[in-house]
Design brief:
- The structure is a homotetramer of 134-residue chains.
- Helices cover 22% and strands 35% of the residues of chain A.
- Chain A has 134 residues and is an alpha+beta fold.
- Chain A has one domain: Roll (Thiol Ester Dehydrase, Chain A), CATH 3.10.129.10.
- In chain A, β5 and β6 form a beta hairpin.
- The first copy, chain A, is elongated and about 45 Å long.
- β3 of chain C pairs antiparallel with β3 of chain D, so a sheet runs across the interface.
Chain lengths: 134, 134, 134, 134
């Protein structure tokens, strides 16, 4: 297991008229968290696309525990739950500044060769980065 | 069980640079589908909010089977899977014009009293609308 | 001048906690309006991209006259204000169901050759479609 | 005149299939920039809403000079161009890490009393914060 934490400030554009963050926007928060995790590990997601690999989402799951509000500085804790192979499994916990658990989630991505659109192995550099955690 | 189907045209704004619909936008497609279902049944969601009831999302689940692309005219099939009480359970299937299943999903909403922010019973008119289907 | 009108239902996802449509979302409404206009004329924008032409936005201007709200069925009136050449000029008026003018806008797009990323002439079919209006 | 600069990392969700940031998303970047400016000055926008004042947008203008791309770390330079009164005038310049000017914009907001929905004077604390710059 590998853990990482990113802070995100909730934007006005992300709220809805209920006064909460619109539920679909958590997909974006999860994206930011896993991208910042990969950047910190030294392998930005952009580099992956530059090398002809893309990572579409296979499944997304969110559970909403408490309202997330405008201007909250949320902490998105991301965990890589399995050793990356053809797929990559992430889980998420989102907290506000009062350390209230707002949201939990899971996401599964797949490595795709951008030329063939076929699933492919996780690049060796990423496998190596995660090797010590599993 | 109650079924309804809505057609939605994919917008450019909803795609990402992978050339697919960004995965978080399916939450919005599901929203449109259940709102149009309620409208057709004669009880628009807006009327619910005007009466002091709001329906935040408790959980969201999406599985992605095939890429959804710009300008696709998708069919979002929504099913109310249980008799509405304090919660309301929906499932979704999204098809493109070639009748390929692109995406399936589930969502659970809760009826909240907007004054107290406490869960409340589904309004009687909605219970009655669905009574014949369960 | 060429006029066209499209109806769009405001989505919950498009509102913000002020209870209005978030101002940035008018860009998307304008997009839908000009895409539906081209579709109705017989030349969908998608066909343009399939032929190796893309149309990025050069400038965007919006004036907000009255609040646009959740579930409003808005009419977006689009006008092509000049004969298309390397650029294409659109203006927009957005009305609600009470025929209140909510918003006006202008947008300029440029035809780009997707291979060279250089500006190019408007395809002849589009020039011909608009010839009678200028 | 008062200047401030905010850095924003472009998200995947903000791109479209052209491989650029979708033009409507600059409204959100401008929002982040002016909110961070007010926060740094000691008067967060949230505090304004908590005090019963809201600031809807009256007009928005964007000019696109060069493509903004995924993962760009953009600098949004915001300038308050006039002394705040009933309205507040902002202009924006957006640069990428190579210091290329990607986008310029202008936005006008109005102070509204949230109870009456009528325009109102800028709160005295904000007037005082800006007094030295005009």
């Amino acid at each position: 297991m590998y853990h990482h934490e990113t802070k995100i400030r909730v934007r006005y554009a992300e709220t809805d008229q209920m006064g909460y963050v619109y539920h679909g926007n958590f997909a974006t928060y999860y994206e930011v968290a896993r991208v910042e995790m990969l950047r910190e590990m030294g392998f930005p997601y952009k580099k992956l696309e530059d090398r002809g690999i893309k990572m579409p989402v296979l499944s997304l799951k969110c559970d909403f525990n408490a309202p997330t509000r405008y201007d909250d500085l949320i902490s998105v804790k991301v965990t890589v739950t399995q050793k990356p192979s053809v797929k990559m499994f992430f889980s998420f916990e989102v907290y506000n500044e009062s350390n209230i658990l707002l949201n939990t989630g899971e996401i599964v991505l797949v490595f795709l060769d951008a030329n063939t659109n076929k699933p492919c192995r996780c690049p060796i550099e990423i496998t190596e980065l995660f090797a010590q955690y599993f």
